[in-house]
């Protein structure tokens, strides 16, 4: 921004009129391109949105500092830090716990293994956060903890698990119906 405002002073003396905001416009589009590169899609999960937004925010603060808007830059930095450092733990605590679902699967002995679960769920396997098997006398009880699943995804996972040979019952933990 400083280069844009003061770097072409010799050209300005010759009578040419320049718009210093053009440099800022190019920074915004360039940082947008870098932010798009930071957003990666891995299967059904999109990652990097916070990183892309942070890079763009830092570029905006840099432009403001270069333009001499120190008070606005400090205020923006404080707001950005509050959002990044303060809201993320709250999000993990309150939203993350609501998006976690637990299943109890009753199967015949050795009917469901981690490999079978992976083959059955495919891309949905990434949502499995815990796979616990408790053996009883007549059956195996398997606890599966899923994270960040919508009700539609949850029902699809239950349906796929019910289709596995040897699986007798699939229910949500705490649910008494099958």
Termini gap:
64 Å
Query: What structural class do you assign from the helix and strand content?
Result: alpha+beta
The helix/strand series, from N terminus to C terminus, equals HHHEEHHEHEEHE
Radius of gyration: 27 Å
Strand content: 15-25%
Spatial strand arrangement across the major sheet = 4-5-3-6
The level of helicity is 40-55%
Protein name: Protein MgtC
Domain MgtC/SapB/SrpB/YhiD N-terminal: 2-92
Transmembrane segments: 23-41, 48-66
Keywords: Cell inner membrane, Cell membrane, Membrane, Transmembrane, Transmembrane helix
How would you describe what is shown here?
The chain folds into two domains: 2-96; 99-172, Alpha-Beta Plaits. The termini are far apart. 9% of the residues are buried. The chain has a four-stranded antiparallel sheet with strand order 4-5-3-6, with helices on one face. The protein has a two-stranded antiparallel sheet with strand order 1-2. It has helices at 2-6, 9-13, 21-38, 49-66, 70-98, 114-121, 151-162, and strands at 40-42, 45-47, 101-107, 128-135, 140-146, 167-172. A hairpin with a 4-residue loop joins strand 4 (128-135) and strand 5. The radius of gyration is 27 Å and the shape is elongated. Helix 3 (21-38) runs antiparallel to helix 4 and helix 4 runs antiparallel to helix 5. It is built from seven helices and six strands; from the N terminus they run αααββααβαββαβ. The protein is α+β, with helices and mostly antiparallel strands.
């Amino acid at each position: 921004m400083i280069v844009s405002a003061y770097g072409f002073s010799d050209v300005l003396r010759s009578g040419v009129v320049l718009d210093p905001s053009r440099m800022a416009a190019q920074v915004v589009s360039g940082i947008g391109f870098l932010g798009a590169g930071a957003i990666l899609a891995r299967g059904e999960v999109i990652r990097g949105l916070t990183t892309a937004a942070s890079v763009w925010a830092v570029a905006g603060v840099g432009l403001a500092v270069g333009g001499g808007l120190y008070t606005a830059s400090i205020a923006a930095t404080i707001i950005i830090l509050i959002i990044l450092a303060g809201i993320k733990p709250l999000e993990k605590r309150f939203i993350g716990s609501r998006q976690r679902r637990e299943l109890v699967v009753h199967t015949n002995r050795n009917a469901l293994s981690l490999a079978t679960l992976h083959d059955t769920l495919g891309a949905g396997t990434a949502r499995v956060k815990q796979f616990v098997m408790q053996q009883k006398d007549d059956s195996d009880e398997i606890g599966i903890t899923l994270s960040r699943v919508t009700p539609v995804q949850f029902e699809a996972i239950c349906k796929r698990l019910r289709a596995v040979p040897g699986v007798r019952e699939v229910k949500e933990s705490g649910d008494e119906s099958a």
